[in-house]
Amino acid sequence: xxxxxxxxxxxxxxxxxxxxxxxxxxxxxxxxxxxxxxxxxxxxxxxxxxxxxxxxxxxxxxxxxxxxxxxxxxxxxxxxxxxxxxxxxxxxxxxxxxxxxxxxxxxxxxxxxxxxxxxxxxxxxxxxxxxxxxxxxxxxxxxxxxxxxxxxxxxxxxxxxxxxxxxxxxxxxxxxxxxxxxxxxxxxxxxxxxxxxxxxxxxxxxxxxxxxxxxxxxxxxxxxxxxxxxxxxxxxxxxxxxxxxxxxxxxxxxxxxxxxxxxxxxxxxxxxxxxxxxxxxxxxxxxxxxxxxxxxxxxxxxxxxxxxxxxxxxxxxxxxxxxxxxxxxxxxxxxxxxxxxxxxxxxxxxxxxxxxxxxxx
Length: 361
Known about the structure:
globular, 11 helices
């Protein structure tokens, strides 16, 4: 049951007024807050059993919506993120350190203090109406999941998709939540114009492991159902078998790809796990809690994959890894996708349908 919570909001934001009370050990990927590297002081809680943690939602008053990047490792240069922080609570999430810029932590704070851009659809319309906007594909989202659970109640992502469909603006969506099927109407409209694709993350087929690893995301069977529903509606779907964690879920790669292809996925991709900054202690603590006997083996194999470190930030290798394990993984992926007929990339998104309503081109 939701309950309003009074709490300080970060600078430039205001309390949105929704909260869900959840014990820290239940439905969370992190059970502590690692130190924020930007803050000189650190809060040390009193020892004792885990305290109840409320998920709080804050209104983000940003006046610009689209983010730009120049990374050669991702297939887009512009992205739209309706939310900052993510309720899904995936212990390995590379975006966790972004919460440190808000004065919060990459641990529990990241999944329990969520900023919501309530005016995102209006801001998006303003961006698309601007003569400075040069039509090109957008990604939703480049950082956190635009279909995390609160989206069911707020509908910000759906509002943005309605604007995109009105303008014929191409979009690539990235999610691990079955909720995306709610918006098949807008997605199918865009896909009919070559202007939509979905990237569905499927990390494991083991429902028990998924509950531990991605506690508030849709279970594997629901993600496969989402692939099937989207594909039947004519929406191109790529399965993202990521992250692959050596010694934990990497052996599932062929089974994941097979299940996704049978559900209707037309393409595939994978990314080995990487643990930048404060993601590492969160993930290590998760291993200690859920898989203590395998922790040493898993961490050692991640270091072997990343040149002796837990994260390799170098362009080119950070998404694929290096060494013998990385090569073996790459070969297994290519052999399996060729066998399944999903080795080819999805068709590029088209901008030809882009129109500003009321304007003649």
